[in-house]
Write a structure and sequence with these properties.
By secondary structure, this protein is mainly beta. Helix content is about 5%, strand content about 45%. It has a four-stranded antiparallel β-sheet with strand order 1-26-25-24, with no helix packed on it. The relative contact order is 0.14.
Length: about 325
């Protein structure tokens, strides 16, 4: 019996080692260095109450200050420049702003509580609202994020709708991914939180509570998924695994940055899903996170991250 037990334990160790090699990849890049952070809890200028989204436009950083129902804008070093939005349901007002996208000279805000996409000028002037509450085509149940094509078409992560909708610029429904019910199979979702659109039309979806990324081609056909073994809603703290994905962003090289919420970090991948590196760890000190919820990348590769529970923004730069 002792020989059999030792043999089985040996076989288990070999299988476990092989599994770790396959599903826990090593970093392929040098990583990033923490530069600075700004923000603290509160309602004043430069303070935050649950920052949930972030976007970069040239020399400006836009932040969703969700429970303060506003957008704050800073320069790349964290100096406050302006703010806009107010609590409410009217034009230019916000319920709970979530992930942000800047496209075609406008800011698109996923307004979670108002079940719509609110569009502003970059100066904060209200432009239009897209969508309303509901389960039908072009309707939303707490949208979490939005991507915008060169033609102005929208791709919206419909959180409680368990789907991603593709809309024309004026809000007309075109198509959707997902059935409206929770699923772990390819093309199904479990509370999707965000979307990103590649220059070639590839659609990346943060499949939030399935702890994975799903990818669809410009022809709307499923391409791949990753996150833990087989991308099948198996969460964990290892490289390439997730514990709730809340936001994704592409840099100009087409590499994908993923806000890994409960793992208190951001992970970086190639467009094909190869793990490259990660930023951060749990804590409240410099370079640490208490729920990394959103990420944006500047033209020079500088990374900005919304540190949710610590109520601050962190700035990182590539290690040389």
């Amino acid at each position: 019996m002792g020989i059999i037990k030792k043999t089985l334990l040996g076989m288990f160790a070999v299988v476990l080692s092989l599994a770790m090699i396959v599903w826990v990849p090593s970093p392929q890049e040098a990583g990033y260095i923490f530069v600075k952070s700004w923000g603290e809890p509160g309602e004043g200028i430069g303070q935050f109450s649950d920052p949930t989204g972030i976007a970069i436009n040239k020399e400006e950083v836009f932040v969703s200050d969700s429970r303060n129902a506003r957008i704050q804008v800073f320069d790349l070093d964290g100096t406050f420049k302006r703010q806009f939005g107010a609590r409410g349901k009217g034009p230019g007002q916000l319920g709970r702003p979530m992930n942000l996208t800047i496209a075609r000279g406008e800011l698109y805000v996923a307004d979670y509580w108002n079940d719509r996409i609110e569009v502003f000028g970059l100066d904060g002037s209200p432009h239009r609202s897209i969508g309303k509450a509901g389960e039908g085509p072009g309707e939303f149940s707490s949208p979490g994020g939005v991507a915008v094509s060169d033609k102005g078409e929208l791709y919206v992560a419909d959180f409680y709708g368990h789907r991603v909708q593709h809309l024309a610029a004026d809000g007309r429904f075109i198509e959707q991914w997902g059935t409206g019910e929770i699923g772990t199979a390819a093309g199904k979702f479990n509370y999707p939180t965000d979307v990103a659109l590649g220059t070639d039309g590839t659609l990346y979806v943060a499949d939030g509570y399935n702890d994975r990324i799903q990818v669809f081609g410009a022809d709307a056909v499923f391409v791949r998924k990753w996150g833990g073994p087989f991308g099948m809603n198996i969460f964990g703290p290892f490289n390439g695994w997730f514990a709730t994905v809340t936001n994704i962003a592409l840099d100009k090289q087409g590499k994908l940055y993923v806000a890994d919420f409960y793992n208190n970090r951001v992970q970086k991948f190639s467009a094909e899903g190869t793990f490259l590196t990660s930023l951060g760890e749990k804590g409240s000190g410099p370079g640490q996170f208490e729920k990394a919820i959103a990420v944006a990348v500047a033209e020079d590769g500088t990374v900005f991250i919304a540190d949710f529970t610590n109520n601050r923004i962190q700035k990182w730069q590539p290690r040389q």
